[in-house]
Amino acid sequence: MTERLYVLLPPSLGKALGGRRSSARGAFAEELSEPRNAVLSALGDAINRGRQRELESTFSAKGDLLERAIAATKELETGAAKLLPAWRRYQGVVWTHVAPESLTPLLRRRILVTSGLYGLIAGDDPIADYRLKMNASLAPFVSLSRWWRPFVTDAIVRATRGATIVNLLTNEHTASVDMQRLAAEREVINVRFVTGDERSAVGHDAKAVKGVLARRVLLEGTASLAALSWRGWRSRLEDSDVIVTAPLTRVV
Q1: Fewer CB in a 10 Å sphere around the end CB: N or C, the chain?
Q2: Rounded distance, CA 238 to CA 96, Å?
């Protein structure tokens, strides 16, 4: 596949533990260093305040998950965090179905991920364990996604010169990108997942097929977007968008 394209994917809330300490830097480490440090500093301030409800809201976690998130943040602050490539760190349903371990390094680098902590990362970038949704409530940011938007949009534009962008982001993560500007400067194909009757959007149930579609477009190019047929899911072109419809459920 010689077509130049990038796929925008959301991160996974579920993440692998472990990794190794490394000085390796990702594709956007220099460009996004300052905003990343600002977010990390805000997380550190929240931890220092020690308000349980605030921490539960910030990290969207309780109990052991919250303790893990706090410990991971402290390791990041001290520079002691262990790193894994993003494609190994993320373990959710979308990423399982992308099966990035069997993609080439070049194709993994064509995956761009919006992240509440990192802003933007490529699929091969080394990242730490962390927990921070893009729509998290984090002082002093009124809206984390809105705050990230100019930084993330600039980074995407600079990284994707001459390429087509396939947008597979959730609404939460789309909010971190100025899609109007991006569409004015790049060819953008938005993919929408809807119910079988096309009356409403599909969220969690579309995770597996989103991963399947991401993998297919990376391997076969954008022409494959309108030819999906997988476990009852089907896709079609509609203007510049791709509509993926869920299987119709049988009424018994």
Answers
A1: C
A2: 28
